[in-house]
Amino acid sequence: MSYQYNIGCSLENLKGVRDFIRKSLRSHVASDVVLNEIILALDEMCSNLMIHAHHCNPDHHLEMHIEVAQKGKVIFEIMDDGEMFDINRFREPNIDNLVHEKRKGGLGIRLVKSIMDEVIYTTLNGRNVCRLTKTIK
Amino acid sequence: MVHIKRLLEDGADILAVVGEIDASSSIELDLAIAKSVGEGSTKILVDCSALEYISSAGLGVFMSYIEEFRDKNIRMVLFGMKEKVANTFQILGLADLLHISSNKQEAKKLLNELSV
User: Could B91 and A37 be called an inter-chain contact, meaning their C-beta atoms sit closer than 8 Å?
Assistant: First the structure.
């Protein structure tokens, strides 16, 4: 099965992203906790892209694909145009530093890397593609 | 969308968080906590029983108050989290940095213990 959703880059649209993932994966993921983790990781990816790569311009769009492959493997792709925002380039902040510096960012990247098995970036027809994979046990 | 209800009970300020906290709504949580602190509350309970979802933006709000609360001797305890929400705090190890109880009764007890 595969599913697609197009999102304008406004933080108000994150709710719609979460609903789309929940609906798409409901019949494939039995655990409410695991489903919430997957939704969380993709919400973090989309909000990072909206804020850092698209400056919350609602005329810019992200395209999300979900493919449920065999043996519980789920592949997520987020495509966009413009500057690539590669989370692998960012060092994960130490939690104690986050408390001290009162930085409200950095936690999201840590969540994504903890939840997903793999996060890789590529380009297709000049567009950025971020591919995240997760095997559901 | 999130809605925050405020209730005073036994000298504690209870903030009941209803709905979902994400990058677009975390400001509501920040404002509610800031208001409570601004009005002089030193005991804050955050009722998470109707909190359906929290992303890093919401976690960041709680994190951002840790040092200020330590300096000002303000105690905050979160309680009543659903398993999926508690899991989000656990992934990042925030359960060790914040005070989290399973229900209101235990949260009040912890709040009083922290006050001694």
Answer: yes
Provide the CATH number for the domain around residue A129: 3.30.565.10
Nearest CA in chain B to A31: B84
To the nearest whole Å, the CA of A34 is away from the closest chain B CA by 8
Q: What are phi and psi of A9, to 5 degrees?
A: -80, 65
Interface test with B, best of A9, A11, A36 (most B CBs within 10 A): A36
Of B59, B64, B84, the CB nearest to A33: B84
Interface predicted TM-score of the whole assembly (ipTM), two decimals: 0.93
Strands B51-54 and B12-21: parallel
CATH T-level topology, domain B2-102: Transcription Regulator spoIIAA (3.30.750)
What is the tens place of the pLDDT at every residue in A60-105? 999 999 999 988 999 999 999 988 888 888 766 677 776 766 555 6
Range of the domain at A51: 2-135
Q: How many domains does one find in chain A?
A: 1
CB proximity list for B51: less than 8 A, separation 6 or greater: B17, B18, B19, B20, B21, B81, B82, B85
